[in-house]
Amino acid sequence: MKSVAVALMAGLMAVASPASAQSSNPYGVAIRVNDSVVTNFEINQRVLLLQAFGTTGDLRKTAEEQLIEDRLRLQAAKQAGLTVTEDEIEAGVAEFAGRANLTGEQLYQFVAQRGAARESMQDFVRAGLLWRNLVQARFAGRASVSDSEIDTTLNLIVVRPTQSILFSEIRLPLNQQTDAQTLELADSLSKSIRTEAAFAAAARRYSRAPSRARSGRLDWLPVAQLPAALAGQIMALQPGEVTAPVTLGATVGLFQLRGVRNDPASAEQVISVSYTTVNIPGEPGSERLLAEATDLINDVDTCDDLRAESERFAVPGYTDHTQTIGTVPDHIAVTLANLDRHEASYYTNTAGTLSVVMLCDRTRDLPEGTRDNIRSGLFNQRVSALGQGYLQELKGDAVIVRP
Q: What pLDDT, on the 0 to 100 scale, is given for residue 66?
């Protein structure tokens, strides 16, 4: 089901469409990657995994690209003398499953019901573990984080301006099949809208955010509760002007400034938020999907209610989060900024379906372990970027043949 699928697909490296025709020989060689091969069977199995994880787009193309990259990862790890044990693989499966509040065995059952073999799940995790170990060993020195960098990040979190802004929004969902048209529409609206009335009309017609019912208009929001980059773009406008298209998770947004005000200074500013998310299964863009999300929101009054009501789905799944405001993903931060404690809304997630989010609390204290989390987050960001560059080098040097 897609409530599990969305949580799991955070571990995937690409998102993209339904599988095309299969080869008549499932065990025949489909792709050669240096001295390794990828079989049709492996491609078909990866397609089934992608479907289980709720991936959309050209699934066969995505499966082929992932398996080519997995071969390169395995080859590089072997050359470096790295291995993983079966116990480490099982721990990796459990870690992956935990993103959807499942055990490893529950994940195996989930994908098996959709035709994917246990071994295919293990192969997927093996390549990821080896690659993680390789890039951390290779780039740890270049990705280290100093105490001063952590202090700088903390200062940005704690010290924020006391201003609020009044603006309107249009949020358009992105998916691999229609991205070009959506971005073209967003660019056209950004360049053509000149008045609040025109923006309101466009929001009612095109927006897929809850605010469309209010013509895209939002109430006054403290700058401190918004993603810094987005707040900066909006505040750089004159009233009535519209931002260029802004990508926020699985949506592209347009924002029109309506006003800016100075708020009374406060020594006690909100630093962190706690919130709960539930992924709603359904067909992307369908009215039924929207109805399911709306019904869930209407049926709950607290975060405890939301957790309990997630059980109404075939495979229940909720995720609790406690984060400093500056580390909340932008698309969620914008949604949370509009909520009071125990209010809920929805947003389009990376699977193209909807996620319900409820604000549990705003606090003026840093969560326990904040410094360690900041260090880990910055380190992982740097290692990931360096690793992606290394993978592109491997791909550029590889001999890849499709017989």
A: 93
pLDDT by residue (tens digit) across 251-265?
889 999 999 988 765
In a domain, 80, yes or no: yes
Domain that holds residue 214: 163-262
CATH number at residue 119: 1.10.4030.10
**Do 171 and 73 fall into the same domain?**
no
The verdict on residue 6 lying in a domain is: yes
Residue 201 counted as domain residue: yes
Q: What does the pLDDT look like over 199-233, one tens digit per residue? A: 999 999 999 999 999 999 999 998 878 887 788 88
Which residue bears the tokens 């260090």? 375
Helix pair angle (104-112, 86-98), 10° resolution: 80
89, 40: one domain: yes
pLDDT in tens, 341-396: 999 999 988 777 889 999 999 887 666 677 787 788 788 878 888 988 899 999 99
Question: Is there a single domain that holds both residue 201 and residue 323?
Answer: no
Q: Whole-angstrom Cα distance, residue 199 to residue 81?
A: 58
Q: Residue 182's closest CA among 191, 173, 193?
A: 173
Residues 286 and 250 in one domain: no
CA distance 254 to 245: 5
Residues 244 and 132 reside in one and the same domain: no
Domain count of the chain?
Answer: 3
The pLDDT, as a whole number, for residue 177 is 57
| Residue 357 · residue 276 · CB < 8 Å | yes
Question: What is the C-alpha to C-alpha distance for residues 245 and 131, in angstroms, rounded to an integer?
Answer: 34
Of the three residues 207, 236, 262, the one that is the final residue of a domain is 262
pLDDT over 60 at 103, yes or no:
yes
Q: What is the rounded radius of gyration, in angstroms, for the C-alpha atoms of the chain?
A: 23
Distance (Å, rounded) from C-alpha 75 to C-alpha 71?
Answer: 6
- pLDDT at residue 178, as a whole number: 65
Q: pLDDT at residue 150 above 50?
A: yes
Q: What is the spatial distance between Cα 190 and Cα 149, in angstroms, rounded to a whole number? A: 36
Residue type, 209: A
Q: Which residue has the higher pLDDT, 268 or 213?
A: 213
Q: How far apart are CA 145 and CA 363, in angstroms?
A: 26
Task: Please tell me the distance from the alpha carbon of residue 47 to that of residue 51, in angstroms, as a whole number.
Answer: 6
CA distance 145 to 147: 7
Are residues 22 and 108 both part of a single domain? yes
pTM: 0.56
